[in-house]
Amino acid sequence: MQFLIAILSFSNLLLAISTDASAHGHDQTAPNLIVIMTDDLGYADVGFNGCTDIPTPHIDSIANAGVKFTNAYVSYSVCGPSRAGFITGRYPQRFGFERNPQYLPNDPNMGLPLSETTMAEALGKTGYRCGVVGKWHLGANQKHHPLNRGFHEFFGHLGGGHRYLPEELTLEDSAAARNENESYRTLILNGRTPVKTTKYLTDEFSDAAVRFVEKNKEQPFFLFLSYNAPHLPLQATPKYLERFKGIKNPKRRTYAAMVSAVDDGVGKLLETLKTNHLEQNTLIFFLSDNGGPTPKNASQNNPLRGNKGDVWEGGFRVPFAARWPAKFPNGVVYDLPVSSLDIFATIASLSGATPDEQRPLDGVNLVPYVRGEIKTPPHHAIYLRKFDQQRYAVRRGDYKQVVPFKGGKSQLYNLKNDVGESKNLALREPEVLAELEALRKKWSAELIDPIFLGLIHLPSFQKKQNRKTPEKAGK
Ligand code: CA
Predict the structure, then answer these.
(1) Which of 6, 91, 141, 398 has the fewest beta carbons closer than 10 A?
(2) With contact defined as beta carbons under 8 Å apart, do 162 and 228 qualify?
(3) Range 447-450 contact pairs with CB under 8 angstroms and sequence separation of 24 or more
(4) 371 CA distance to ligand 1 middle (Å)
């Protein structure tokens, strides 16, 4: 009997040791994680999705040596909420982050609720070193500062965009910027310290990403490389513009130059991983935070319908690829719907990070899916709600329900045959539509109303919208 107790205690001890080891990140198999997020990049503006006028060889190498996802969605079709979803692994509509926040450094409610757990907070507890480089956009108040949301290092800007030329960054104190426009001119923050930068902003961010990896290579790390490019303003340097003399449309030319600068940066980062023998066990995701706003930055979402802000595919189906040489197959195309919310769930499974039980993740661990070990779809359905316009989308299998505007009749599309959402099947297949409508209602019942006003409520924004058509004003 005593012997049995001894065995049991010994196995408990082993269990305790192994739990402890995984809780502190000693599991050597847990990969480093790098998420490269671009801002307002069109679905069709990377080589791996067929782009021909902007070469993106380094970005493409992530897809070519890993997995290209053709049906990947973000959780919202504009920047802030999409990022809030990604960083928490949860639909942002669950916690009221459903608008692009206003830049209000004095408002502690204008940002990601402190009750939510960020990916950095969860990974930090398992021994990961976490850094964000680039755009934050999850709140300008100190309470929301990346260093207060689980990140150990930050090099970037707090607002939703930024000017790219160093001579235009003239406002020293980020807290003194009175609105989003002014925030575009603040000095870049290194941690909490404003620093005078000297290079084109995209190059600054690429170099900071390389520095982060060099500095933290001895321990597991999570780098969120959050480029603000190619978001407005359209600005590029002669070095990059030179490459696109053949593009006649000046907007598209500058946009191409901006994307090309990102691609160079991705190349530098991949090279750094290789030189430091980190390539094998670093899991990299590449994506855009929402669809391209074609009229603004000349991005392209074809063959998808619509743009940034829409519930059409062009609003929230994004370029998405992942590479992990140690575990992922090489050159696989994955067509079932996945979500940016899956990134948190994937790294949580791999690292042993434990999300908050009260706030369950909406994503799944993608590893067994891309390895072909699970053949069923990762998600029962993919959802989008835009509260202010009461627009919805529900994707399940090949079908998609769209509520195009407030009070509008539901439409139904079969994306397999009609990726451009041109043939409304609502009357022809009412039973499918009813099934999706039931899912929409069930999911919507789990959501709350937005907890803060957004950029769209500013008088300056509304004045601009009034000059547009009513359909556009809804964005
Ligand atoms: Ca964006």
Answers:
(1) 6
(2) yes
(3) 447/91, 447/93, 447/94, 447/385, 448/93, 448/94, 448/95, 448/96, 449/96, 449/98, 449/387, 450/96, 450/97, 450/98, 450/99, 450/387, 450/388
(4) 30
Q: Catalytic amino acids?
A: 79, 137
pLDDT band at 25; cut points 50, 70, 90: very low
d(CA 352, ligand 1 centre) in Å? 30
Tokens read off for 390: 């009461």
CA atoms of 69 and 319, how far apart (whole Å): 8
When comparing pLDDT for 1 and 139, which is higher? 139
How far is ligand 1, taken at its centre, from the CA of residue 75, in Å? Answer: 12
Matching CATH number, 30-370, of 3.40.50.1220, 3.40.720.10, 2.30.29.30, 2.40.110.10:
3.40.720.10
Ligand 1 centroid distance, CA of 414 (Å): 27
Domain extent listing, the chain:
30-370, 382-444
Angstrom distance (rounded) from CA 80 to CA 13: 45
Contact 158, 145 (CB under 8 A): yes
Closest by Cα among 162, 110, 106, 112 to 133: 162
Question: Contact, 183 vs 137, CB < 8 A?
Answer: no
- The dihedral formed by the CA atoms of 225, 77, 74 and 41, expressed in degrees to the nearest 10: -50
DSSP track, 39-95 = SS--TTSSGGGT--SS--HHHHHHHHTSEEESSEE-S-SSHHHHHHHHHHTS-GGGT
Q: In percent, how much of the chain has pLDDT > 70? A: 92
Question: Residues within 5 Å of ion ligand 1 by Cβ?
Answer: 39-40, 79, 289-290
Alpha carbons 231 and 80: distance in angstroms, whole number: 13
403-454 pLDDT, tens digit each: 999 999 999 999 999 999 999 999 999 999 999 999 999 999 999 999 999 9
Residues 225-281 have pLDDT tens digits of 999 999 999 999 999 999 999 999 999 999 999 999 999 999 999 999 999 999 999
Alpha helices (runs of H) in 352-399, residue ranges in sequence order? 367-370
90 contacts: CB under 8 Å, gap ≥ 6? 116, 341, 359, 360, 361, 362
- Cβ-based neighbours of 415, under 8 Å, separated by 6 or more: 71, 313, 395, 398, 399, 400, 421
Alpha carbon distance 163, 167 (integer Å): 9
Which residues are 225's β-sheet partners? 36, 133
Is 407 in contact with 390 (CB distance < 8 Å)? yes
Which CATH number is correct for 382-444, 1.50.10.10, 1.10.10.1100, 3.30.1120.10, 3.40.50.720? 3.30.1120.10
